[in-house]
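4.2 Preliminary Data

To establish feasibility before requesting continued support, the project team ran the inverse folding procedure on a target of 227 residues. The structure was first converted into the token representation described in Section 3, and no sequence information of any kind was made available to the design step. The complete token record follows.
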């Protein structure tokens, strides 16, 4: 039991604990009763910490979060988020889970081997993300998606993030952090109409902090594995 507790550092326990406290605190403070949103937020915070450790279990939780978040987005008429997470993030997280399981750092170790992508592949990933965004813009507009511009930008950052996750690049955390900023804006706009969505804003603020840590830790993992 002690060994399992030591899997996370003190700083990681602090970050995860702070995320949980703020998410639950905002839920209680604003007298909300949407337990589905609360559940999705807690699953998301836990998945980010496991992803920051390069643990494939984080990708399994990401799949669960994507399904819940897609449904929540549907209730807010954020069809872009719904289509992105149900039609793109969830399926690609399955692919990423398989990739992480097939590329462990060492036998029996719950840590993925960090990959370094070339500049050419990086340029390809950006170009592919823009192409996907172009197609999604017209799909989202046809669905009369609320707050079309940030919803469209979210597609770009989300696709880039899941692509880099599947490729086991530390830059996936940077792309997710950028996506968090877009979603903070998106759900802040929703909170102006319905105050209950403020807890989702708090959720993505904590996600941003976790993704910044994820990039830091993956950079350390890459140096350690190389050594």
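Position-by-position output of the design step:
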């Amino acid at each position: 039991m002690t060994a399992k507790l030591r899997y996370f550092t003190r700083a990681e326990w602090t970050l995860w604990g702070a995320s949980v406290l703020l998410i639950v605190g905002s839920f209680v403070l604003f007298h909300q009763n949407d337990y589905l949103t609360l559940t999705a937020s807690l699953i998301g915070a836990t998945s980010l910490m496991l992803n920051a450790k390069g643990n494939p279990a984080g990708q399994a939780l990401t799949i669960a979060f994507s399904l819940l978040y897609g449904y929540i987005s549907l209730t807010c008429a954020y069809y872009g988020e719904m289509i992105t997470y149900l039609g793109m993030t969830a399926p690609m997280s399955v692919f990423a889970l398989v990739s992480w399981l097939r590329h462990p750092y060492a036998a029996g170790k719950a840590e993925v081997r960090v990959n370094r992508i070339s500049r050419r592949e990086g340029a390809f990933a950006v170009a592919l993300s823009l192409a996907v965004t172009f197609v999604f813009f017209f799909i989202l507009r046809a669905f009369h998606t609320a707050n079309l511009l940030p919803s469209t930008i979210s597609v770009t950052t989300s696709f880039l993030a899941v692509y880099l996750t599947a490729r086991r690049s530390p830059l996936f955390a940077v792309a997710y952090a950028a996506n968090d900023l877009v979603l903070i804006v998106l759900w802040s706009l929703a909170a102006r109409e319905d105050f209950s969505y403020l807890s989702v804003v708090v959720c993505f603020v904590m996600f941003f902090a976790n993704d910044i840590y994820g990039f830091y830790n993956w950079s350390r993992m890459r140096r350690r594995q190389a050594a």
